[in-house]
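Bug #77: duplicate submission created two jobs. Keeping one. Sequence:
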Amino acid sequence: MKLSQLKEIAKLAVNIGINLQKGQEVWVYSSVNQAKFCEILTKECYDKGAAKVIVEFHDEKIERMKYQYQDLKTLLDIRLSEKNKMKERSEILPCLIYIDDDDPNLFDGLDTSKIDKSNQKKRKVFKKYRDQESMKNQWLIISLPSKSWAKQVFPGDKPNVAFKKLEDAILLTMRVKEGEDTISKWKEHISLLKKRADYLNSLNLDYLRYQSANGTDLILHLQEGHQWLSAESVNLKGIAFTANMPTEEVFTMPKREGVDGIVYAVKPLSLNGKIIKDFSLRFEKGRIIEVHAKENEETLKKAIDTDEGSHYLGEVALVPFSSPVNQTNILFFNTLFDENACCHLAFGQAFEDNFKDYEKMTREEMIKKGFNDSLIHVDFMIGSRDLKITGYDFKGNEYPIFVNGDYAF
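Kept job's structure:
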C-alpha cells in the first residue's frame, strides 16, 4: 500500500476504531509482515495522546513450526509469564488492536488434534482474564494484505498480482479512497447501521424465520431483553468504539434454547488453519444436533464440542447481500470480511451488551437469564441471494425483515 493509505488506515483505527482517549495504553498484536504499518500506527497513537504503545509481533511460519515440532505436553504447558501477561492486561485495560493477515491454510497437513487441544487449554486458562476485561476497554480487528493470504484468495494469479488485488479489495471495503474524508464516511456509515438497529429494537420481536431455496429453514427466537446493536459499541467507561473494520452488520442475541431447524452455509469457513466447505447445522431446542460438511467436517465438530456453550448460538447478525464486501465477488477466507458479506450466525459466546442493562448484571445473573457462555465464538455465513427473513412479535404480528437477501425496510 502507499504510505498515504497506510496513514489513513492508522488514523481510522485510532480515531474511529478504538477511539483512543488521552492517557490510555494501546497493545497491538500483528504479524511481522505489517511492521511498517505498526510503526505508523504507533506514531498515530502517540500523536493522539497514548501513554504507552506495546506491539507484539508473531511470524506465521514460526507459529506453524510450533505445532509441527512441539509435543502435546509442551503445547499444554502454559507458563506463569503468559498468565501474568494476561492478568496484567486485564488490570491495565489497554486499548487492543489486532491486525489479521493470516494464511487461511496455515496449519494444513498438521495434526489438528494437537492444535485443538492446545487452543482449548489456552482459552480455559485465559478466560477469566478475558471476562474481567470484557466491555471495559476498547478493541479493534482490522486486516492488511499478506502474500500467503493473497495466494489463497487468488490462486490463479502471480503473487504480485494477487497481492495487489487483495490490497485493493481491503481499501474498498474499508472505505479508504484517496481524496475523500475517510473519517466522515465512516461516521455516516455508522449512523446508517444504528438507524437499522433502532428500527429492529422498536419492533420488540419474539422470533425470526429464515427461509432459502438451498434448504435453510430456521426458527430463531430472540433472547428476552435482547437489544440490536451495530458498528459502534459503548464500553462500561462510556467510550464509543468500532470493533470491526470493515463492518456491515446489525446483530443481537438469540434465545439459547429457542432455535429449531436447519441452516446451510453459503461460504467456506476458515477455522484453526483449516477451510471447512459446504456444511450445514441442524438445531433442536437451541442445541446443534447434526453437523455435515464436505471438507474438514471433523474440525467443525471439534470446535462445536469445545464446551457446552459452543453447542448453542451466541449471535444472530443481519448483513445485506448487497454489502460492499459481497459486491467484490471475492471469497476472502477471512471471517472479518466474509461475515460482513452476508447474514451470519455464530455458535458459542454471546455478547454481553446485547442484553439490555447488562451493566447492572453480573455474568452469573446473565447466564441465569439465558446468556450463552463459551470459550469460543465462531461466525458462519448463511445469507443467500434469495434469503427471506420474517420477524414476528409477541402478538403474532408479522414484519418483513429481509426479502431476496436484502433489507425489506
